[in-house]
Amino acid sequence: xxxxxxxxxxxxxxxxxxxxxxxxxxxxxxxxxxxxxxxxxxxxxxxxxxxxxxxxxxxxxxxxxxxxxxxxxxxxxxxxxxxxxxxxxxxxxxxxxxxxxxxxxxxxxxxxxxxxxxxxxxxxxxxxxxxxxxxxxxxxxxxxxxxxxxxxxxxxxxxxxxxxxxxxxxxxxxxxxxxxxxxxxxxxxxxxxxxxxxxxxxxxxxxxxxxxxxxxxxxxxxxxxxxxxxxxxxxxxxxxxxxxxxxxxxxxxxxxxxxxxxxxxxxxxxxxxxxxxxxxxxxxxxxxxxxxxxxxxxxxxxxxxxxxxxxxxxxxxxxxxxxxxxxxxxxxxxxxxxxxxxxxxxxxxxxxxxxxxxxxxxxxxxxxxxxxxxxxxxxxxxxxxxxxxxxxxxxxxxxxxxxxxxxxxxxxxxxxxxxxxxxxxxxxxxxxxxxxxxxxxxxxxxxxxxxxxxxxxxxxxxxxxxxxxxxxxxxxxxxxxxxxxxxxxxxxxxxxxxxxxxxxxxxxxxxxxxxxxxxxxxxxxxxxxxxxxxxxxxxxxxxxxxxxxxx
Amino acid sequence: xxxxxxxxxxxxxxxxxxxxxxxxxxxxxxxxxxxxxxxxxxxxxxxxxxxxxxxxxxxxxxxxxxxxxxxxxxxxxxxxxxxxxxxxxxxxxxxxxxxxxxxxxxxxxxxxxxxxxxxxxxxxxxxxxxxxxxxxxxxxxxxxxxxxxxxxxxxxxxxxxxxxxxxxxxxxxxxxxxxxxxxxxxxxxxxxxxxxxxxxxxxxxxxxxxxxxxxxxxxxxxxxxxxxxxxxxxxxxxxxxxxxxxxxxxxxxxxxxxxxxxxxxxxxxxxxxxxxxxxxxxxxxxxxxxxxxxxxxxxxxxxxxxxxxxxxxxxxxxxxx
Lengths: 551, 321
Known about the structure:
The complex is a heterodimer. By secondary structure, chain A is of the alpha+beta class. Chain A has 2 domains: 45-264 and 529-549, Periplasmic binding protein-like II (D-Maltodextrin-Binding Protein, domain 2); 290-521, Dipeptide-binding Protein, domain 3, CATH 3.10.105. In chain A, the strands form 7 sheets. A 7-stranded mixed sheet of chain A has the order 9-10-11-2-12-22-13, with helices on both faces. Chain A has a 4-stranded antiparallel sheet with strand order 5-6-8-7, covered by helices on one side. Chain B has 2 domains: 13-99, no CATH class; 103-318, Orthogonal Bundle (MetI-like fold). In chain B, helix 7 (159-173) packs across helix 8 (186-215) and helix 10 packs antiparallel against helix 12. Classes of the chains: A alpha+beta, B mainly alpha. Chains A and B meet through helix 1, helix 4, helix 7, helix 8 and helix 14 of A and helix 2, helix 3, helix 5, helix 6 and helix 7 of B. Chain B: Residues 111-311 form the ABC transmembrane type-1 domain. Chain B: Its main location: membrane.
């Protein structure tokens, strides 16, 4: 037989060689790089390829996840948003003022804004949105949590709404900046869930044309758009005729389509592709880390062996994270030493707590009683191996991150700690968490502002939601921390708020409940033919209001 | 063609054959529905949470209760199972948890794309396999050895790998074809090739073997003695022999194409049954998984019946009449 089945290593080698060849070919081909002198023009349809999951409903009030936020940012707008400096600024709202006790807010809206169905944005519309979010039939999760403390809304003038609160909430405006709380046309909502899911009606620079499931959403320019976005490059409607928002789940295909010119911008590229693009100058790169929590590994403190603070610290001292990040992420991810994203102004960072130090790790493990070693070199105590369960969701983790976990596993082994990595699909992964069957876990969470700390570390969050999910995965139950987070969430004094959140973060970091890795990755690669990409919303999703093609 | 004659359809044997086929199909569909209904319940994960936008959603208790009631999940398992069978008997596939739309309607949108992909791939695989087999028959031993090697290699290529190589070659390096499936015919070329090449390798092996047998049989010897040319012998005699095992395998091949569609539709971002199955399983969308499995099973049964018919038509010794 002249040919035999290609063995896996040789197949991988062939694929690797081919991709290297193509990369080189791409670099040498004479495609002109668009410089500042290239002339921008109006019109054209932008083709966006998303690797995030296709939403099951385009109305971000229903459910409420990041893929919905990415899309909704094109056709819905929020009451507040963040400007280029990361400052919270009014958007659809004119102003919002709390009463002295924080139990009531007066919300004023801008004049002259209309939804794409022609109806006006007014106080009654915003009230209808809040009620829609709070209605169990809507099945909202993220947006529901954001407006949970609003007891009732009262229209006191066509452009003025009074919100009665069940408790003070100084994160309300941050909540209002999230796309899951974006404002939709009440007439659109009243069409019913199924219709509103397929084409929500908003005030954004684009509107939903049609949705071909598993293929694309066609977004059309809103010709009546007059209000500028937070940091506008121009006024009036968007330049683009529309956006074809395609769903291409396979990373390699997405990148190939971008290189072939079939699509103009992609999200979720692999780190090596970002590095190659940065180097070659063939593509532009937008790095927009998500707000809220950083990407981190949480240590389950509710059961052995991590119920012992010494073992938690020993684990953190034992593993080498930086080496893995440097080699696997090609300089596209910065090591984090904080519970919060680097774009959160109130984030507190402490590198000292995370210095890799094998000697200290060994001493701590000895003190905790893990002194013996078994035949494989793992530490044991009373004949039991120091073994950790680490369920990993393959749906939420890019290959580079899974490799990082494997490297962490390898360095932990040197310290005598066994890590059992279990690659699971999303549902099984949630199942493992709900069953408390984990010692280590890495879970994403996006929310604007430091209020996310309460969701992740307050003892209230160890109580599972009816779906079985709880967000405090390190299962910290610390009365002192609870008190700090409670007060930080309600104080009217910004300086006091900062002090309280800093104290709370110190407690969390010093307690060794988590191992921060890097910001939640939000990278975009796009054709150099595009200008004006990069204006982002409060949750770092791109907007294409100012985007143009160059001739 | 004996069985295709109009009169034979009224014969008791043919009627029994058709009834047997229908009975078999009903049994297969019932078995698939039952296996999936109980199989999915065994996997951890709350279906109500799946309805509420994924198991990680922090849906309120009221919302989950509403979802349970709306979808009948608050009833005992046996009742739910009987309700399912009742619905299926009425042809009602229910509503998808994740797409918030009737499964039947979604399937209606997805089936044509996947069937087009599968049927085209089957045709291309057939043409490639027959072409290669014929070529090797006419060109001596070395050609036969090379063809056999190519077939074995092709049959062993994993879809995922093949798709990546085809994209790199034809989209990136040469720039001839789009890497993403568009609605143009050009967008179909790479997905069809990805599915057809391994299948062609497999079919080719079988076809060439029976061609070889036919060409060395007593009939061929006699024909040669009558002065029949090799090409003529091949066209009039061996092709039919080669087609029989090919047709026989096509039912099986079609099933493998449907499973291959899971990979191919995901890689080339093509809407279809395979890609939907993957996402439906991930989010525990029970009605959707059920609908896709039933549609695939039905297609499989139909293709098996068709290949059976075609085989009987080509081979009178197996005729029903």
